[in-house]
Write a structure and sequence with these properties.
Elements (H helix, E strand, L loop, with lengths): L2 E5 L2 E2 L6 E8 L7 E7 L6 E6 L6 E3 L7 E6 L4 E6 L8 E8 L13 E2 L3 E4 L3
Parallel strand pairs: 2-11
Antiparallel strand pairs: 1-3, 3-8, 4-5, 4-9, 5-6, 7-8, 9-10, 9-11
Length: 124
Amino acid sequence: QLQLVESGGGLVQAGGSLTLSCEVSGRTIEYYAMAWFRQAPGKEREFVAGINWSGTGTEYEDSVKGRFTISRDVAKNTVHLNMNNLKPDDTAIYYCAAGRSGIVVRSESAYSFWGQGTQVTVPS
């Protein structure tokens, strides 16, 4: 079993930056695909970014390409989401997830382990 704990959320003005972190315990992240999802008020949870088991492949949702970067620190068993040029539409609860297949998939069903989420608010 994996335990995932997100941190780093907060309130930031439009155009600002935040870095979210996901600390993982229970097993090394090297065996898992790691992803970030988000859920805005009144909307379904959606894929934001993912990184594969080897760390060599990443994917991003179109609206965050060029602004968000997912990375991982195997030594610290931590995954980060660096978010720049934040927009009001980025306001959501952000969730970290781990998938056993090791391959980045954009569907929630591919991820077996989830964190509790961290709130990001970008006022309009």
